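Help wanted!
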Amino acid sequence: MNAETQFDTKTNVSKDLYYAVHKGIRLANARMLVALGQADATNEDEVRDVLDKLAAHLDLSLSHLTHENQKIHDVVEARLPGGSDHAAEDHDHHLVGFSELRRLAREVEQAGGDRAAKLRRLYQRFALFMADDLTHMHDEETELMPLIAAHFSPEEIDGIEHSIVSAIPPAKMVAFAKFMLGAASGSERVTMVTGMRQAMPEEVFEGLFAAIMGEPWRFGDWERMEHVLC
Ligand SMILES: [Fe+2]
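Answered by r_m:
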């Protein structure tokens, strides 16, 4: 772990592959942990709802990990062999975590009178996964990103980011955008949304944001966006 690292204030955040998406994942992990803790084991609907949320959360986490493996680690390895070894080991560890969480979720689903105990185990295991993920994301931001920034040009880093974003199917993009916008500061949110508006045709932008917000949204209504996503 790299928790003692001095934060590199020289790193330009706009060229940081991890900044916005990791803030979104931290928010999503935190909300997921709280939802698991609040679910009432005696209420079928609440249990079903939280298990559906967990399945979607693990899908999204797996997508994120796969993007990093395919679009970041492969590129780093081609130039700096071994440069992404630590992050890749963490990713393998995460895959074990995903399958354990899926198994514990199935146990909750199939449980009888011991459902509360099974749900508590799932909650505890998710908390450990989240702790690992927080450490892992910190290491990526403070070890791997500075390594990338030192060996790749800003244009190449933009290219990596573009290759990640352009490979995400629309439904996944909506899910990522919800968390990334929800976790951003107000001014970051305005910058992100304005950039997206400039990058796509008006009707595509409107459709995307109707899906993100779950309702039609008028560009500039930041108050409503904050209310829905934050
Ligand atoms: Fe990662």
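OP: Thanks! One thing I noticed: The pocket of fe (ii) ion is lined by residues 65, 68, 87, 91, 136, 140 (CB under 6 Å).
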